[in-house]
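User: Before I run my own analysis I want an independent prediction to cross-check against. Here's the chain; please return only the structure tokens and, at the end, one sentence I can use as a sanity check.
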Amino acid sequence: MRFKYCPECGEKLGVLVCGDEGEVPYCEKCKRPWFDMFSSAAIVLVVNPEGKVALLNQNYISTVYKNLVSGYIKPGESAEECAMREVCEEIGIHMRRVDLKFTKWFEKAQVLMVGFIGYTDETEMKLSVEVDAAGWFSPEDALGLVHPPETGSVSGLLVKTYLESLRSDRTEPAP
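Assistant: Structure tokens:
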């Protein structure tokens, strides 16, 4: 979101050149720049002890593809805290740990997606009202059930990243 009016005083913003940032909306009255803002969300590929991954049906998002757990990061919350909270809220699973894999700009929604692979010792799900159905799938099957990674899909890229990590673990010599 690019500010046109000052959120503090309501004055129409001018422009100020701020070093390497270039032209930035600026309030002369408050003497403050207003940098562009955007939402951030965590997305998690949840892996259970058997190596299966959680996929969700959320018809309000897609009736064609399955989804991963995701949600917006709240003010004051880290991306890791958001990832763990969202998994617990959406599928009732507590995470042992989450590993940051990448960040990716999701152009369609204008959201910075923070991608994690999360590990749990649990397998029994308790679904929230925003999840129509969910289940555990092999990562190989999951790759064909989420938006394809070739489209830039964060879900597809996370599943592909996990599969590649499994393959590299199998081919690396033991220490």
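Sanity check: The beta strands are 14-17, 23-27, 32-33, 39-47, 53-57, 69-72, 97-106, 111-119, 133-137.
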